[in-house]
Design goal:
4 strands, binds zinc ion, mainly alpha, 4-stranded mixed sheet, elongated
Length: about 375
């Protein structure tokens, strides 16, 4: 059982992380350039003119504009997505996907994004036209409502499109989880093996779903090289999310943040529309402006979302250490995870603030070691 990080893997992890940070900046730049071309380069006005001459009414105008805009955005962003999602993943030995399988995933994700985006945009323009003062409030209510529905449907409708899963067959692991659940006086609705190995070499476990679709998913990439004790500490962490109501709380927290986003957009967008000479709020030509504004606000609020998530994750770690009393297994599971997933044990602070939904693995291991050293755990 090793409680130290492999220096070679850590060196590679640092290099990999640096490339991903750079790609993140390039992604942002791509989005900003596209928006600038549409807004200031006159492309939006020309596209609006073209779809209006072609389409019979507001619904068709909005649909055609959105489809053309999204196609432009998707195609220009494709090289970056390909490099990041396929080339780099293979170069670092993290992907097990063929190009064909990766492309098929991209097309499925595109179909999903286009249909949901189209629905959202139509609704948004309906509200902008009908309720110029309170459109942002109605839009926020609809958004919050869809978030709940999507969280509920995700494990049964969306996830199976990309990764197959089936009920966990390992009786010993199941028994361990049941014992933990019994101790916590709760019921686990289902535990499944997620066939991550068809996509990646990285290990992961997660709690998904809401209400009747809630379940614990254990990546098959975690089943091979981890001891039952190590997996038990990971399962306990997932169980903690369930006990702490993290799915519902997370949605509520997101709802508060998105309220802020929609409210600010509701104040700023009319001002921008007026000062930039658009015909009105429901002018489809101002769509890139609205998309840019919402994107910018979401980006600015990202560190708050990440900090909230890191806090909930550290509580789940705490629970796992307490419930299993296996700090050594917890620490060695984390070390294995860092090696396997090429995760930086100690990332730079700015990266943690921006991107990290979990405490950096180095800190998670340190906490487990503290438990070990302080003998916090009484039972064997
Ligand atoms: Zn977690």
């Amino acid at each position: 059982m090793s409680l130290d990080f492999d220096p070679e893997r850590q060196k590679k992890a640092k290099e990999y992380a640096r490339k991903r940070y750079l790609l993140f900046a390039l992604d942002l730049l791509q989005g900003a350039v596209i928006l600038a071309i549409f807004i200031f380069g006159g492309l939006s006005a020309r596209l609006k003119e073209a779809v209006e001459s072609f389409a019979p009414g507001q619904v068709a105008v909005v649909a055609l504009y959105f489809l053309a805009f999204y196609a432009f955005y998707w195609v220009t962003g494709f090289p970056l997505a390909w490099y990041e999602g396929f080339v780099l993943q293979h170069r670092y030995g993290l992907s097990t996907q063929s190009l064909r399988s990766w492309l098929s995933d991209q097309l499925k994700a595109l179909a999903l994004a286009v249909s949901l985006g189209l629905l959202a945009t139509e609704l948004l323009y309906f509200l902008l036209a009908r309720s110029p003062h309170l459109w942002w409030l109605w839009a926020w209510i609809a958004f919050a409502f869809f978030t709940v529905i999507l969280a509920n449907l995700f494990p049964v409708l969306i996830l199976p499109l990309f990764i197959p899963f089936h009920p966990l067959e390992d009786e010993e692991l199941k028994a361990r989880l049941m014992r933990l659940a019994e101790k916590a006086r709760t019921k686990v609705r289902g535990i499944f093996t997620l066939k991550l190995s068809v996509k990646t070499t990285a290990g992961d476990a997660l709690l998904v779903g809401l209400g009747n679709t809630r379940r614990i998913l254990l990546g098959d990439t975690l089943l091979k090289d981890y001891t039952p004790d190590e997996i038990e500490t990971i399962l306990a962490h997932e169980l903690a999310h369930h006990l702490h109501h993290d799915m519902a709380l997370g949605i509520a927290f997101q709802a508060i943040l998105s309220f802020l986003t929609f409210w600010i957009a509701g104040q700023v967008f009319p001002f921008l529309v007026r000062s930039m000479g658009y015909e009105g709020l429901a002018d489809i030509g101002a769509f890139p402006l609205l998309a840019g504004l919402m994107g910018f606000l979401t980006l600015v609020l990202t560190p708050i979302t990440s900090a909230y998530s890191r806090w909930r994750e550290s509580l789940a770690d705490e629970y796992s250490l307490k419930a299993t009393c296996k700090p050594e297994a917890f620490a060695s599971a984390m070390v294995k995870l860092a090696n396997q997933n090429l995760a930086e044990a100690f990332p730079p602070r700015w990266a943690e603030i921006l991107f990290y939904s979990h405490p950096p693995i180095g800190r998670r291991v340190r906490k487990a070691k503290e438990w070990l050293e302080e003998g916090k755990c009484a039972s064997p």
